Structure formats: C-alpha cells, structure tokens
Fold:
Amino acid sequence: MEEKKITPTIENASCPLPLRHNDRIVLGHGSGGRMTEELIQHVFLTHFKHPELLLGNDFASLLPPQTDAHQGRLSVSTDAHIVKPLFFPGGDIGKLAVSGTVNDVAMSGAIPLFLTASFIIEEGLSIQVLEKVVESMAYTAEEAGVAVIAGDTKVAERGSVDQLFISTSGIGWIPEGRTINGQSAQIGDSILISGTMGDHGIAVLAERGELGFSTTIQSDVAPLNGMIAELLKAAPHTHVLRDPTRGGVATTLNEIARQSRVSMLLQEEALPVKKQVQAACEMLGFDPLYIANEGKLLAVVPEAETEQALNALRAHPLGKDAALLGKVIAFENETPRVLLQTLIGGKRIVDVLSGELLPRIC
Amino acid sequence: MAFTETYRDPQLVTQTIQKIKDIITKPWVIMEICGGQTHALMQHGFDDLLPQEIELVHGPGCPVCVTPLELIDKGIAIAQQPDVIFASYGDMLRVPGSEKDLFSVRAAGGNVKIVYSPIEALQIARNNPDKQVVFFAIGFETTAPANALSVMKAKELNLKNFSMLVSQVRVPPAIRTILSDPHNRVQGFLAAGHVCAVMGYHEYLPLAAEFQLPLVVTGFEPLDLALGILETIRALENGKNEVINAYPRGVIQEGNRSAQDIIEKVYKTCDQKWRGIGTIPDSGWKLNEDYTDFDAENRFDVGQIQTKESEVCISGLILQGRKKPFECPAFGTLCTPQNPLGATMVSSEGTCAAYYRYQRK
Structure:
C-alpha cells in the first residue's frame, strides 16, 4: 500500500500576536516599556498638555514665577487621595486630587501654579474609567489655573489597591509680605466659613449606598484659589486660611486654636448646614461639625475686615452661604479650646474628632 | 425639619427652664436613664442653664457600655475565625474587650463590617453563601424589634449562614435595681422616649407605685428635655408619684404593638449580665426555642473565655449613677476616647465620652 504523502501547507499559518489590552489596565501598563508609553500617550497626554510634560523627561524644568526670585516664597504641599466610590455626586477622585492639593497650597495665601500627579492603579481597572478621571483632573486644573507638569503611573496587582489612588503635589508662589498660617490667629479675630458644612462627607456616604436612604446632596469639591484671591483683595490682613477636610470644621478649628494658642467661641445659630445634610446627620447620630468638606474654607480675619471678607466670599459663586461662625478669644485654662454657645444659651466644648466617625445604635 | 426646629426653639426652651426655676424650692436628684439623653443634655449645654437645685445623674442606658465583657470577647473570637463575616453597629468596634477590640481584629485581617441595621447583615449573608455571617445584636428595647425581625427573615429564607450574638437588655429591671440599692439617691427618673415608643410605659406604673417616685417619659430635643425635667420637678414638688408622659408626640401607653409582637415571637426573657453592674434578674432577652439555631453562641465553639477588666476603670459606678466621670482618677488622662479603659468612654451614648466631649473643664 502506497503511503499517502502529507504535504504541509502554509495557508493557515498564524503568529500569536499579543492582545492589545486597551480596555483594562494590566500589569504590563506599569512595566515602563511600550505599554506604559502607549498608556501615557493615549490617556494622559491627550489631556495634560504642558510643554514640559510633552518633552518626555523625568523632570520638569521651570522658571521661577517672578523675575526676581528673592521676592516672595514658594508654597509646596502634597496629598494622597483615596475615595470610594471613584465617582460621586458633584465630583470624582480626579477633581478631588486636583482641588485638594490646589487648596492646600492656596491656604498659605499662595497662587497655585503647578501640580505633579502619581497614579497607583489596580490591575483590571477599566481604561475608560481612568481616562474619565484624567479628563476631570485636566478640566479642574484648567479651572484652577494650574498646570500638571510631571507625573508617574504604577500598576499594582489586583487586590493590593482599591481601583485607583492618586497622589498630587502642588507648588505655588506666595507674594512678598503675605503671612497666612495656623499660628497667626489673634484674640478678637473673626472666624468665617465659606459655606455649608458636611456636604462632601454625606454625599460620598450616600453614594456608597450605606445610608439606607438616598439624598440629593452634592459634594462641594472645588478648587478654592479663585475665591481666596477675591477674599485677600477684600481682607488683605487675613491671618489664617484652612480647608476643613477630614475631621470637619471642629477638628480644623481645634488645630488652629492649638497652633495659635488661643480659644474660639462659636455660635451654634450661625453654623451653616444644608437641611438634607442636617437630616442625614440626625438619622445617623453624626454632627455636621465633624463631617468632611472638600470645597470650603475657614478664614480667621481681623475684626475690622470682617464685613469686607464676608462680602467678598458671598460675592463668589462658591461662597454664597458664607457665614461668621464666631470669634477668637483668650483661653482660660491650660489648653486652648473651641467652645460653642448653644442655641438655647448653654456653652460646651467642641472637641476634635476621635477615631472613626461611627453611626449611633439607637 | 420645621418640626425639629420647633423643638429647638431657644425662646420656648428658655421659657420652660424659667418655669422650672419658678417652681423649684429644694434640691432634687434626677436620673436620665438613657445615654442619648445624657449626650443631648450636654450637647445643648443644659448644665449651664438648669437651676443649681437640680442634680442630674446619668443612668446605665448605653447599650454598648453594658454589653458584658465576655460577650465582647466572644465576638472578637468569632470575628477572628476564617470564613466569618462579623457585622456590627459601628459603635461596638472600639469597645475594649479583655485584650483587644474589633477594630484591631479588622486591622489584623478579620472580616468585620459596620452595618447600619441588622437587615443589612442579613443581606450580606444572602450575598455570601459560603461565609458564616454573625450579627452582634446588642441594645435596649429600641434595637430589639429590628434585631428580632432579621432572625425571623433569616428563618423564612432558610438561611443557614446567618446567626446573632445577642445581648439584648431591658430598662425597667435596671431601674428597679438602681432603686433597690441602699445607696440610691435618685428621686425621679426621665424615662427614655425611644424605649417607650416601642414598649409603651405601662411597665413603669408599678415602679412608680412601689418606690414612690415620679417617672417622666421624655424625648430628646432640647424642648423635650426641658419639658421632661419640668414635669419631673413639678411632680416632685407636689409629691405626685406617678408616670407622666411628656413625650406624647412619640409615645402612647401601650407602645408599638406590632414591634412588641415581633419581640415576643423571637425572644424570651432571661437574667442578663450588665457590664459594670452585674446580673439583673429578668433584664434581658435571648432567642427562644424556635430560634436557638440562629444563636451564634451555639453555632461557634469559642471555648472558655477568661475576661479581664481594667483595674482603674470605675465605669460600673458611673453606670449606676454613683460616681461622676470627674471623680475617676483616669478620666481624661489614662482614659480618653482614643485610648479608652472602659466602655463608657467609647460609645456615643457613654457618660464618660459625653463629659470628655462636651464638658472637660
């Protein structure tokens, strides 16, 4: 029997090309090689367009913002951002990462100029989600008038980070003669807040679906440098600026009181709180004084500039609910304290938040 | 919200406090049984406003504080086991057990989840059929209906992976214990409005008659508290030893019948240990024969629990209203909310926490 010859054919030849992985982040995106390069080109550089970034160096080289570098001072701040969920009513982690650091820089009275950003990404994150976050960062940076000038990405194995962490650093310029810091509150000063307390914390909590009820509250997350510029025009002798983020207004005021070695007396009737936030807090046993804000500032200003300061805040779209919370007073005992004159005329301590904010039982 | 605003109206509260001042002629000792009221009184600064004749002593009505140490240790032991999701009201996580708290269990890898209601724990059990879900069912009469309901639902759904670690306490037997103590100084009670909303106040009638003193059902808003104190002082000044309802918008004498029905279906009365106080006869509820399968103490072998209380903490005396936090040498120094020695410093309803938060001088 004649053996049948098998002639090999090449008509079905195939070379196993690697998949492009352009829908989800894989570990290769953090390898530093071609996939990283592609991710940077397609996701980051389509939104961040500062010339220094486009040069592709591992650094940005910048001119000092003033021709005479000896005038004024630099203000530098850094902040890591973790929020669950990544998108919440009124904002997202990108807007938060830009606003948070812009605000920290601006609270020194500085004009924020530049940002750097590090992205720690969980393997498996949708690239579309990443791009949405980056787009939001670019939009917020433009709104704040700052440029993203350097960045980095790392990809971590699934489960070792939760979706996406963003760390940002900011650089700003404090004009000559401006001294705004936590040590500068003085007895007799007025304590102002730029709007209602607790919007961000309750909005995020509600979005997590943990409250058992829904709300219409939006996070207040926003860059505040524009409003600060207006405030400082009206009240140039402002002593302290600070954003009451984690720990809320109560914790932030306690920090300032301790730094400046003064006490503070707040008026309960003056505390601005949205009705929905108040209602959510009542149900959970939370106090709005301890709930996080991401788009509010506390300002300690000399009594003589109180009215101008309030008017300047209220004239700005982010400050229309601005209020005078109380006054800086001398402290009587050994420790500086924040006190509250209650609605019904009693007086009590407003302490710092201790540990995690926990809902009550009944 | 307008409703709440009315009950916080400074003018109405001031007028009510003025009425108290007008009728009071001698010193009186009043106990507010509920930790929520202790906090509300301090949060609104009542201590500055009430006449000096009134001494408010703070009762044991803090669910977290009175949960027995061995049960917390059992909870910690269960939460450390693999394939367990331990669900708890948030306040419970920071309470010190003998060695550690639930937060440290979570930090060490235990699956401890904060829930806002027991129904949420039930949902976790449905979503995780391969895990045992244990809910820490603690509290007074206020939490009992929802806790009981979750077990009823679990039985209906034939859920084999849900159980409860139960420490359910009742107010009236605790009042009896306080009044029976030879050191008792309490002359009148503010009865907790929320507890009475569930249970009504018929259980308090025999207490008023037997111990010859007024008990006034009181709410939680500033005006409610002022009205409750006013009615107590009025009764004391007039020698009226009866139960008065100063919270009629929330409470009727028989309470919430359907809530009570659920409690009766699931629980039975038992002698109950109160942390810092001791065992009080008939002061608790445990799962009845129909529901013992859902008792985490039967489902998990947590072995012999050796408990160890702090030697300096006087929370027992605080809970009985016999000492004030300022009388404790550890208060605000060794013992703070960040580093609590006893449960009264932890809970949002604990007396020491209230003093620390609002009143530290």
